[in-house]
Amino acid sequence: MTRAHAWPALARQALRGIGRCAVPLAVILAWQWMGSTERLPHYLSWPGAIWAAARELSADGELWMHVRATLLRLVCGFAIGAMVGVLTGMAAGMSRTARNFLDPLVAVVNPVPKIAFLPVVLLVFGLTHATQIAIVALSVSFPVFLGAQQAVAQVDRHLIWVARNFETPVLTLWSRVVFPAALPGIFAGLRVGLALSFVVLFAAELIGAKTGLSRLIVEGEEWVRYDIMLTGILGYAVLGFLADRLLLRIRHRVLRGSLIGTQEART
């Protein structure tokens, strides 16, 4: 691509970026203006006050302590739930025996709000990080299971039939044919599970956790420091946004590779 042709593409990308930022930026500016002119209720701190509170908490390390605790629980719980969901979902999609065993269990447990299992998990793990991690893993595993099962069920059976005719080992069949073809559906389930993990983790941290962004929100409410409370809420929003963008970036890179792998399997 020549430089003359590159400029219009760069201009379009810049305009798209500006368009995506326009609404959030307008909301922040309006929020800041209403706060600075004392047009907001006292409990709705404005961005300048929230930024000052975040800097205050960052200076003594308290904010990063809460962020690290939340990230630890989120990453561990999501990884465990995703692994369990993908493996069991693929098994249910490929094996009628596994499907007959797992489908009734999922049909019974999936409609139950996963936070309802918190008392049981507390009895098992006590007031530890493991409690929040287990609840997150439980909430993530079900949408990932359903996404993986449906994705595997929709894999082109001709590919599987050809691979089996060539006596392809089961592990190779799964890793080179089934798994790459099912990746779009698996990532759809992972994205749903990621969103649910934040919802469940927020509730789980409220009960018994001494650290975490939920704890920071509660402390802000108890101290009547609404700027601190909103710092915790916005912290969740920022982490959720960054995690979703990261997952989409990984999805884009992995699917490009899986497309090549699937095309090789067809030849």
TrEMBL record:
What is the annotated localization of this protein? Answer: Cell membrane
- Show the InterPro entries listed in the entry: MetI-like, MetI-like_sf
Q: Which Pfam families match?
A: BPD_transp_1
Q: Name one GO biological process term.
A: transmembrane transport
Membrane-crossing residue ranges in chain numbering: 17-34, 71-93, 105-127, 133-152, 173-203, 223-243
Q: Keywords of this protein's UniProt record, alphabetized?
A: Cell membrane, Membrane, Transmembrane, Transmembrane helix, Transport
Transmembrane in keyword set: yes
- Protein family per UniProt: Belongs to the binding-protein-dependent transport system permease family.
Q: What is this protein called?
A: ABC-type nitrate/sulfonate/bicarbonate transport system permease component
